[in-house]
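Entry:
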Amino acid sequence: MRILLAGATGTLGSFLHKALSARGHDVVSVARSGGDLRYDITDPAQVDALYGAVGPLDAVVSAAGHVPFKPVTAMTPDDYRSAFHGKVLSQIELVRQGLPHVAARGSFTLITGILAREPIPTGSAASMANAAVEAFVRAAAIEIAPQRINAVSPNVFTESLPGYGNLFPGMGSVDLADVAQAYIRSVEGAQTGQVYPL
């Protein structure tokens, strides 16, 4: 399959690039500061330009989305807007604008996270954004068939525990290899409207 991978230079994106390529897929990577193509998916105009440049696809995979972590009392309206814009609207645009460019039975796989179902202190923006992405996936699935859409909702990555583990006390972690398997299930499988919790 020919797969567009957004957020390709991050921890997850870099791992997914290797995992998908190892399965024989032609992966076209995109990120703001690296990859095969350099576009900012938080800008709808750049998403349009991206699809114009990349050509026909079989799947779109997203590992992108930034949200601020602060106590609710320290959050501002701009912080919540930033989270919604950076993780929700950006991925919605990948789907909305990608529909004409993805094969009739192709797929979209988005990223959410454990905070949609297991909140932590300072994580209200992430919880909001993750839950919104998951709701969008379920809603879009009933409209875009036979194209498919799913989301992967992982715990904190085991590989990221040194930097982020203190934010997730007692919550465990998930290896990037297991997260990659969920993406592969979404891309190569037949399900749609699913959220894969890890």
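The CA atoms of residues 137 and 193 lie 6 Å apart.
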